[in-house]
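Researcher: Can you fold this with nicotinamide-adenine-dinucleotide in place?
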Amino acid sequence: MDINTLLKQQQAFFNSNSTKDVSFRITQLKKIETLLKSNEALLYQAIYEDFGKSQFETYVTELALVYHELSSFIKNIRKWSKKQSVSTGLVNWPAKSYVIPEPLGNVLVIGAWNYPYQLSLLPAITALAAGNTVILKPSELPKKTSEVMANLINNNFPSDYFCVVEGGVEETTALLKHRFDKIFFTGSTAVGKIIYKAAAENLTPVTLELGGKSPTFVMADTDIKMTAKRMVWAKFLNAGQTCVAPDYVLVEKAIETEFLEALKAEISAHYSSATIEDNYLQIINAANYKRLIKLLDKDKIYYGGQTNCENRFIEPCILHQVTFDDDVMQDEIFGPILPIITFTNLDEAIKKVKERPKPLSSYIYSKNKKTINKILHEVSFGGGAVNDSLMHLSNNSHLPFGGVGLSGIGAYHGKTGFDTFTHQKSILHKSFWLEPNVKYAPYSHFKLKIIKWLMG
Ligand code: NAD
């Protein structure tokens, strides 16, 4: 079916008002939950074929979040969709005021490849929970996951309500020529700009979930072993192909050696040659593999960095003695390479971070409240964690997720996500029985006095 016809059908379905019925939405969300749960084996198989992702990582980093949001929406959307009464000033008395949360309409969701299920399905189900229709365009790079989502959704939902359109640049460009009521995009900052421009043609509101270089501050007073443990997990999960992964580390010079040794010990404990195959991902494609191996500066490798182009394998790698001028510090790494930069003066380190675009995430490891608060106060970033990395995403019902500046526009997860796909329609509701003459001409000093009192 061509996009024009598909969108026209979705517009007609939305205009039938069916999606405004919260019971209808809950039924659809339950249907998605059952569909995913009863086809988990297919989902695991597809993502393993795409880039060797294990069932464990797929469940923890993709499906668990989707299930969690589904049950939270099923539980809460009745409450979130209710009109909210607010107070009304004297100037309008007698009247009441309320806000009606209403769905935006026809939504386009464009997904990224690195968490192909989560980054496509989470925004899609959030848009559906808020009462919209959805066209989902997953990333084309993990072919099998795109295919499995298209089959499951297109065979079980009418296309005028929820439909997957597969494809890459050409298909996305074609989709962007049409007028949607909302575009939700996850991907790179460069493509984010293309989406923003296309959306501007129709004044379509956008949420842009983008990337960037996320810094991690490691202070000398930290618990070194625990810091290394949590950081190694967060960095090498998904083989570093995570938008909120610690991109680089700023560590106080005084603990450099001890910290590097702790990182090395952690990597050897969890990614030894005996276990790595089943517990570690491939790089998504040859282009990304080639891009990453160029960043493996042999003079700076402290640990790891073995590669195998046949299965697009890059061993977890620590680079030391890195400077802000090195190639690895120019763009988001998005792979299993962790550069370590030392500093002696925190203000200088903060200044360097602030000279760069605002990151999607940042992490601070320290036991000193003053230091933690100083960094939180002075550095702008999307979101993050203190004494951990990445785990802020696991509190997705309560912590909004989104970037700032070049790392994104808008946010989602939980109620924030519901609001992202909702228009707040404000209503003043009057009765007919009173209409004081005071606002009508001819004006007078006396009327002005009363108006000042009423409106002041
Ligand atoms: P990408 O920008 O290359 O692709 C994202 C989507 O845009 C894909 O569906 C792709 O088909 C489409 N696309 C690509 N080029 C296009 C073009 N010229 N015109 C129209 N559509 C186009 O991003 P990616 O490689 O899939 O993902 C990696 C980037 O995404 C990283 O920068 C990462 O940090 C970021 N990311 C952000 C988040 C987040 O939640 N903020 C999550 C994951 C990834």
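Model: Folded with nicotinamide-adenine-dinucleotide in place. The radius of gyration is 25 Å.
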